[in-house]
Design a protein that fits this description.
It contains 17 helices and 14 strands. The chain has helices at 10-21, 33-40, 51-60, 70-74, 97-109, 126-135, 156-161, 173-183, 198-229, 233-241, 262-275, 281-294, 298-304, 332-342, 355-362, 396-402, 417-423, and strands spanning 2-6, 25-29, 64-67, 79-82, 114-118, 142-146, 166-169, 193-196, 313-317, 346-350, 367-368, 381-384, 407-410, 426-428. The strands form 3 sheets. It has a 6-stranded parallel β-sheet with strand order 3-2-1-4-5-6, sandwiched between helices. Strands 11-10-9-12-13-14 form a 6-stranded parallel β-sheet, with helices on both faces. Strands 7-8 form a two-stranded parallel sheet. Helix 5 (97-109) packs parallel to helix 6 and helix 11 runs antiparallel to helix 12 (281-294). It is globular, with a radius of gyration of 24 Å. Bound molecules: nicotinamide-adenine-dinucleotide. Nicotinamide-adenine-dinucleotide is lined by residues 6-12, 29-32, 35, 83-86, 98, 101-102, 120-121, 149, 151, 153, 260-261.
Length: 438
């Protein structure tokens, strides 16, 4: 099939590459000239495990091309995916200007029947709005389908190639057939393609992300209770996770969820609820708790340094909002960096993939180093903000010898409490007892 993907960011590039990988002819469109030039010359623009190999192979086979010209990109396509940003507007609702802007342009340039697919996360009713924006100028038939994307950054290629399910919202039999053909290679193991109406598909995506954000937040609240009552959240997690109704996944407490999806999608669902005069109370609480959680370690750090962080130096391991990505949108580390700098501290940070992105944001306000151990030189304490695998079994003797104080503030519960006790660290984690050798 001939496919156009409009918007070549995390979702668009993965979508385009994976469809090319199953033999389709794909053109990705983006307004960012630098991005398109880079991709056209064979350089990948994001870090996503496994993506580069597929990207290079399909580009070599001429199945994957890039352009800034929308008309040229969609001319021969049978289906057009919209993988455009839907950032929060000033009031927190999803801003549809990118989607509706492209829909408006599409209406003017469509020359034959096409299926236009919303892959972006969009509020209920957007398929109708996209339809209306195209219909304003279109002289040909077309269908608008909602096909929300559930891939996770860090495992996006696997998620796309082997999705748990594909959700498709459409009331058109013609579009349904096209979508079924398109996704058939991805569900050979029997995972379902679930067809529904457009509105239910749109709401499914918000419901999924809001539920997951709630699950994480619930565990963060349990972790708070563990700290106050002297219980161990790891034990509680294992105790409840073995109940099939609860499940083992997404029960790990930490310093809050971040990323480009959960924060904005929870906020957008709350806003959608307000628009229909419904108070979505759980999600209000989820947002509040998560804001607080991002800075959960700060009072503990301050108290260790007797309330004065001026002139103190901190090593930070991990900047990305989660491991295996260079995405730093809403990353808890950024909130901690702001707080530490405001308190007069200095920072040396290391992240395997996200340092360039953070440097673009904060410039030389913090120091970026080449290895996790370089960050420890002359540091008063170590803060762990992202659970990259390489941080899990570090050389503790090296950490001890480089740090001025043997103090670790771990926002991701990477280390064993007994081991920390034996090694004599002051070790603070989330929802577990504080190890204090003094
Ligand atoms: N990132 C994720 O993990 C993820 C997962 C599922 C769903 N989503 C949703 O998918 C959508 C896209 O997210 P993303 O993370 O890929 O965003 P992104 O910011 O990484 O990419 C968006 C791309 O669209 C381009 N763009 C903007 N206006 C354009 C225009 N008029 N024409 C062509 N290109 C244009 C931008 O230059 C950018 O490259 C959002 O709605 C998001 O909520 C994201």
């Amino acid at each position: 099939m001939k496919i156009a993907v409009v918007g070549t960011g995390y979702v668009g590039l993965v979508t385009g590459t994976c469809f090319a990988e199953t033999g389709n002819q794909v053109i990705c469109v983006d307004i960012d000239h630098r991005k398109v030039d880079k991709l056209s010359s064979g350089q990948i623009t994001i870090y996503e495990p496994g993506l580069e190999k597929l990207f290079l192979r399909n580009q070599k086979e001429n199945r994957l091309q890039f352009t800034t010209n929308l008309e040229e990109g969609v001319k021969d396509a049978q289906v057009i995916f919209l993988a455009l940003p839907t950032p929060p507007g000033e009031d927190g609702s999803a801003d549809l200007k990118y989607i509706l802007g492209v829909a408006d342009d599409l209406g003017k340039i469509l020359k034959d029947y096409k299926v236009i697919i919303d892959k972006s996360t969009v509020p209920v009713g957007t398929a109708d709005k996209v339809h209306a924006a195209i219909a304003k100028n279109a002289t040909v038939e077309f269908d608008v389908v909602s096909n929300p994307e559930f891939l996770r950054e860090g495992v996006a290629v696997d998620d796309f190639m082997k999705p748990d399910r594909v959700v498709i919202g459409t009331s058109s039999e013609r579009a349904k057939k096209t979508m079924n053909d398109l996704y058939a290679p991805f569900v050979r193991q029997g995972n379902p393609i679930i067809f529904m109406d457009e509105k239910s598909a749109e709401l499914t995506k918000y419901a999924a992300n809001s539920f997951l954000a709630t699950k994480i937040t619930f565990m963060n609240e349990i972790a708070q209770m563990c700290e106050l009552l002297g219980a161990d959240v790891d034990m509680v997690r294992r105790g409840i996770g073995s109940d099939e109704r609860i499940g083992k996944r997404f029960l790990f407490p930490g310093i809050g969820y971040g990323g480009s999806c959960f924060p904005k999608d929870v906020q957008a669902l709350v806003k959608s609820a307000q628009e229909v005069k419904y108070e979505f109370k759980i999600l209000d609480a989820v947002m509040d708790v998560n804001e607080r959680q991002k800075l959960h370690l700060m009072p503990k750090i301050k108290s260790y340094f007797k309330g004065d962080l001026k002139g103190k130096r901190f090593a930070i391991w991990g900047l990305a909002f989660k491991p295996n990505t260079d995405d730093i949108r809403e990353a808890p580390a950024l909130y901690m960096i702001d707080e530490l700098l405001a308190a007069g501290a200095s920072i040396a940070a290391f992240d395997p993939e996200a340092m360039n992105n953070v440097q673009q944001l904060v410039g030389d306000k913090i120091t970026f180093v080449h290895s996790q151990y370089d960050a420890l030189h002359n540091a008063d304490a170590l803060i762990i903000a992202t659970e990259w695998s390489e941080f899990r079994t570090p050389e503790f003797a090296r950490i001890s010898s480089l740090l001025k104080n043997k103090a670790i503030f771990d926002g991701r519960n990477l280390f064993d409490l007994t081991q920390m006790e034996e090694l004599g660290f002051h070790y603070v984690s989330i929802g577990r007892k504080v190890i204090d050798p003094s």
